[in-house]
Amino acid sequence: MNALACRILQEGAAELGVAISDELLASFSLLANELQKWNRKINLTAITGDEEIALKHFVDSLALCRLVSGDDELLDLGSGGGFPVLPLALVFPDLTAVSVDAVEKKIIFQRHAARLLGCRRFEAVHARGEDLPRVLGRRFNRIVSRAFSDIPTFARMALPLLMPLGTIIAMKGKGGAEEADAARGPLAEMGLTVVRVAEYRLPFSGDARTLIEIGFY
Ligand SMILES: C[S@@+](CC[C@H](N)C(=O)[O-])C[C@H]1O[C@@H](n2cnc3c(N)ncnc32)[C@H](O)[C@@H]1O
């Protein structure tokens, strides 16, 4: 990553309350390089420039740090090139993280990146969200997604894998609060409720973002 992208990552993360040491910065740089290298051959992401990756993939993913803790058992559903799960695995080395995507080449990239980065408690699984209860057969206390699906569809897939006191977190952009309101009915039918809606701005760009946290009634 170039110097500006490193600054964007460190200052953007600091604004979200996350400290990026020089050692972590080197890991994020390595991840950005691998993403760019693989993206030239296989389509992983439309976000390709250094500064864009630093802001729209890394800083954006790190906004979840306020709702995730290092000892969580986390599942990222529809993780694509590894977001938000890989930045979280870097910042929380003890996080147990399982990443799922329906596109195998994306999962192969994530396994490669995690190996290079030394993410010991990270597992990438090629599967469709609909098949997860059969494929995974385990439970998580934090199930997250970014740019994945509408809230009820995501919640329906996550529900069988959620621990009793766990929460589901959808990362949304502008209009997230309205989407959360509209989902209250379908969520109630599943025994779920919206426990928190956090609206904030992405550092530097000022783009609107919303974290929607959902739990059992
Ligand atoms: C728009 S991308 C978002 C990727 C990543 N979360 C991000 O924010 O950069 C949506 C991802 O969800 C995956 N996906 C879509 N439907 C899925 C399903 N039913 N089960 C698992 N993955 C799915 C796609 O393959 C794609 O990688």
Please name the CATH architecture of the domain at 66-216.
Answer: 3-Layer(aba) Sandwich
What is the CATH homologous superfamily assignment of the domain at 66-216?
Vaccinia Virus protein VP39
**CATH class group of the domain at 66-216:** Alpha Beta
Identify every distinct bound molecule in the structure, by name, code or SMILES.
S-adenosylmethionine
Number of strands: 7
Which strand order spans the largest sheet, edge to edge or round the barrel?
A: 3-2-1-4-5-7-6
Mean pLDDT level = 97
Q: N-to-C terminal Cα separation, in Å? A: 44 Å
The helix content is 40-55%
Q: CATH topology of the domain at 66-216, which one?
A: Rossmann fold
Structural class: alpha/beta
The total of helices stands at: 8
Radius of gyration of CA atoms, rounded to a whole number: 16 Å
Shape: globular
Along the chain, the helix and strand elements come as: HHHEHEHEHEHEHEE
Poorly predicted segments: none
Strand portion: 15-25%
Main sheet overview? 7 strands, mixed
